Each structure stands twice: as structure tokens, then as C-alpha cells.
Amino acid sequence: MKMYTYVNFSGKCAEAFRYYEKHLGGKISMMMTHGQAPDQSRVNPDLKDAVLHARVSIGDTELMGADIPNAQPMRSAYLSLNVETDTDAERIFSALADGGEVFMPMQETFFATRFGQLRDRFGINWMIIHERPMAPRS
After folding, report:
1. Alpha helices (runs of H) in the chain, residue ranges in sequence order
2. Which CATH number, 3.90.180.10, 3.10.490.10, 3.10.180.10, 3.40.630.30, labels domain 1-70?
3. What is the secondary structure of 60-99 as a DSSP string?
4. What fold, for 73-138?
5. DSSP bridge pairs for 102
6. Which of 12, 86, 94 lies closest to 54, judged by CA?
7. Does 39 score more than 90 pLDDT?
8. What are the pLDDT digits (tens) for 49-85?
9. Cα(81)–Cα(124) distance, rounded to whole angstroms?
10. pTM passes above 0.85
């Protein structure tokens, strides 16, 4: 069994996934619009350019999404990226914060050398973390 995260956008799915591909080192493996669906008799002409289904690989995770009319920004959930270096944390946080809303600026905490929270310009909440190495317990 595998569990995937599926996020909804209000018309910005393709733009968001291309942004994630560029700035997070992702790879889009699927991007289909309503206009590309096999049965066009059921497609609302207003939605022909809207994403029906998309999939992007980010690290070892698959993120899926679509354009849903009237989709709302995420509220109580976050996509959490655990990165390898402070530099990666700063770079990714900066890219995702561009045009978005920072909830907690990138900073050092007791559990991470770099940690920050934000909502990106597409309405997706993110936590970016470079975990602090934990001392072994004796």
C-alpha cells in the first residue's frame, strides 16, 4: 500500500507543478487537461485548459493534483520537505515564499538548524526543515 498527497488548485495546477519541478528538482510524470480527456462529450468548454490530473515526483514522494473550481488554499495541513543542508533549506524556502505568505521565517530551532513555514503563491502550505542531528541517548 502507498499513500499519496493530492492537492487541488483553482486554475494554477500546471503553473504550480512546473514551479515545483524547477525549484524543488521535481519531475512531472503526468499532466492532462480536461481538453485532453478521451470523452470530450462530458467536458465543460470552460474547463478545457484546466488540469484534470497531474503528478510530480519530488525526492522520493509523488505529489498529485488537479484544478478544481473554487478550490480553497490549504488550512491545517502542510507538505513538509526535509532537506540535506541549510543552503538547500534557505534556497527552497526563498523560492516557495516568493509571492506567498510566510508564517514562520526560516530560522534555527532546538530541533533544526533551519526551519520555516509558509503558504506559497498557489495556496499550498509548506514546512521546510533541515533537522538538527540528535545526540545518541546513553
Report:
1. 13-24, 86-97
2. 3.10.180.10
3. TEEEEEEE-TTPPPP-S--EEEE-SSHHHHHHHHHHHHTT
4. 3.30.720
5. 118
6. 12
7. no
8. 999 999 999 999 999 999 998 999 888 899 999 999 9
9. 13
10. yes
